[in-house]
Amino acid sequence: MRGGLLGELLPADVAAVDDFGDSGPAAAMPLHPEEARLISGVVAERRREFTTVRGCARLALTALGLPAAPLLPGRRGAPIWPQGAVGSMTHCRGYRAAAVGDAARFLAIGIDAEPDEPLPQAVASKVISPRERAELTRMTCHDAGIAWDRLVFCVKESVYKIWSPLTGSWLDYADADVRLRPDGTFTVRLLVQAPTVAGVGLETLTGRWLAARGLLLSAIALPTG
Ligand SMILES: CC(C)(COP(=O)(O)OP(=O)(O)OC[C@H]1O[C@@H](n2cnc3c(N)ncnc32)[C@H](O)[C@@H]1OP(=O)(O)O)[C@@H](O)C(=O)NCCC(=O)NCCS
Questions:
Q1: Is the pTM of this model over 0.90?
Q2: How far is CA 218 from CA 113, 114, 198, in A?
Q3: Could you give all domains of the chain from N- to C-terminal order, each with its CATH number?
Q4: Which of 32, 58, 72, 139 is deepest in the core (most CB within 10 A)?
Q5: Local confidence band at 225 (pLDDT 50, 70, 90 cut-offs)
Q6: SS3 of 31, please?
């Protein structure tokens, strides 16, 4: 299943579904009772994003012929995908998205979406290294219309969504060095000892980014070995 913004960033055999509000088909899909229990009593916005993003994920699972099972949080909050699937979900103001791949083809998928707005200074100083800051200055000369510091944050969140389910461990923003390219690709070098998982080394990850419709998107699909 393709279409939307997210589909532009992922290989053709990854099912990508996104939604720009909470009134489309994804939002109308009912939650499983276990999921509904998890969000009973939460604020309305959290209920909407939780519901719509799971609708996106179920549409993606169905497109791949996989069971549209409940998507509950596992270790460190990473969603537990049905047998045979790997995937990732993201939501931010005005956007919800899910990507799902066949576990025989992909070891992990990590996606993130952020508003295309500069990071607050206090956050930027924790997330952006001096080397990345110097590169962002060059990127701003190339295109001043993109919040490059937020894009680095976005890429790092998508890295964490790959790293966390595969390793079960924490990764700090300072542990990843992001190199963005104007052509919509990026490379991330991990600055910590990165394990090899199922024959695939995690020390360098590559992905694609996009700035459109007031949003920044990052996506990594890590193939199996
Ligand atoms: C977990 C985290 C990455 C989520 O990112 P976010 O921008 O806050 O929120 P998003 O809407 O993009 O993503 C939320 C979804 O991510 C998924 N998620 C949560 N924890 C996760 C984890 N450990 N691994 C993979 N996916 C996770 C969930 O599906 C969640 O949605 P849900 O609660 O409705 O199920 C972020 O909150 C966080 O903890 N970051 C700190 C770690 C980090 O990013 N380090 C950088 C390393 S370079």
A1: yes
A2: 7, 9, 24
A3: 6-112 (3.90.470.20), 114-223 (3.90.470)
A4: 58
A5: confident
A6: coil
